[in-house]
Specification:
- The complex is a heterodimer of chains A (130) and B (293).
- Chain A is built from 5 helices and 5 strands.
- Chain A is an alpha/beta fold and 130 residues long.
- In chain A, strands 2-1-3-4-5 form a 5-stranded parallel beta sheet, sandwiched between helices.
- In chain A, helix 2 (35-45) packs parallel to helix 3.
- The mean pLDDT of chain A is 95.
- Helices cover 40% and strands 21% of the residues of chain B.
- Chain B is of the alpha/beta class.
- Chain B has helices spanning 17-23, 55-78, 92-103, 117-123, 126-133, 166-176, 201-224, 238-248, 263-268, 272-279; strands at 5-9, 33-41, 82-90, 107-111, 138-141, 158-161, 185-191, 229-235, 253-258, 284-288.
- Chain B has 10 helices and 10 strands.
- In chain B, helix 2 (55-78) links the parallel strand 2 (33-41) and strand 3 (82-90).
- Classes of the chains: A alpha/beta (130), B alpha/beta (293).
- Chains A and B meet through helix 4 of A and helix 2, strand 3 and helix 3 of B.
Amino acid sequence: MSKKVLVVDDDQDVRSFVVTVLEENQYIPLVAQDGVEGLEMINKHKPDLVILDVLMPRGSGIRLYRKLKTDEELKKIPVIMFTGIALKSFMKSQKVLDEFQGGEVPKPDIYLEKPIEPEDLVAAIKKKLG
Amino acid sequence: MEIRKLLFVTKFEDLCYDALNSLLALRNASLEHVVFLNVIERDKVAMKRGSGYLKQEEVKLKETANIRFIDWAENLFEMGLEVGAYMEVSTLIPEILKVAQKELPDLIVIGHSNKGALKQLYEGSDVTELIRRTEIPILVFKHRLEDNIVPEKLFQRPLFATNWSDTGKKTVEYIKGLKKVIGKIHIMHVVKESALKSLDTHEVQKVRKVERKRLDDLCDELEKAGINAKPHVYVGDPQKEIEKAAKEYQASMIILGSSDKAAIMERWIGSVSKNIADKSVFPCLLIPGNKNI
């Protein structure tokens, strides 16, 4: 059975790119354009993988990632971060939030900095989903 | 009322990271979320004869904005702030209102309008239009005139000019939410010269005494909320006197409530708050009245 992959990104061009890559590789793409919609989709569809941007309106990927990784039911969903924000800034942000909110979230499974070639994206997805 | 979320509207030529940085003092007043908005005016990508819609230009402008926002966002993320960004081809004020409706910020920060006098007369200034259409407070950011540098401590020494209107009361509540960032606030009321005509010295002093008492009460109210406040009574043309007081007390910004005049009246005559926001050299925090929409 094909696996469901949710793409959360505010950029229409990026969503189209990832959706095309997913369809060509027999995955079922789901899309959301911001953090709020992303969380709704995750709760509703329980995707097998989330591809997540960071800088978005209505809830960033940093907060959404944190929500996922601190939720007992959702934390097993693998996440590929796909963003222009540097990993160093992402991790520093999580560290500040760890101190401020308590708890500790793990490093993302895979962190891809935009832009990326389709084959590299496919390789990352296959690494997580097979 | 606390400032948890601010909407930072930039064209990059007017407001940049230095301006944003000076607003980060608001973290002490509960700021936790910054939303960037860059509106690419339609005429920059509009159809030109022989070339059609300038899609490539749109992509270029959006990506340029995106690169700036990523850089700014990294800094803010590292401070633990939440950050969002919009880059849209649109018309400035409707787009600000649209994003404000989605994001519900507690403060909108915009740069000073660069429209010429004639354009302002017929179209109105961006500030005027925005304040007429939103209830969200607006900070009209300005660089220091003498050296074009961002005022370092924007909230350190504000001047609040009150006309005792209902909007003034709303403004007082907003100021209380800033208690952790305000060093000392100067509060003034301007008695119009027309109110003193045909009065003798005794009556003039009486007017001053009454206004001073109201200001003292307001200062006491703010002191109770934890804000150091100093009252001042001025006499004359409100716009000129507010500007004068801001200079005398080296205000870091001017805070004003904004009343609603009929749009056409406002365009030709202007209101004190909107004229100051447009013409003053000081940054202005405008608190709009409640709209009956």
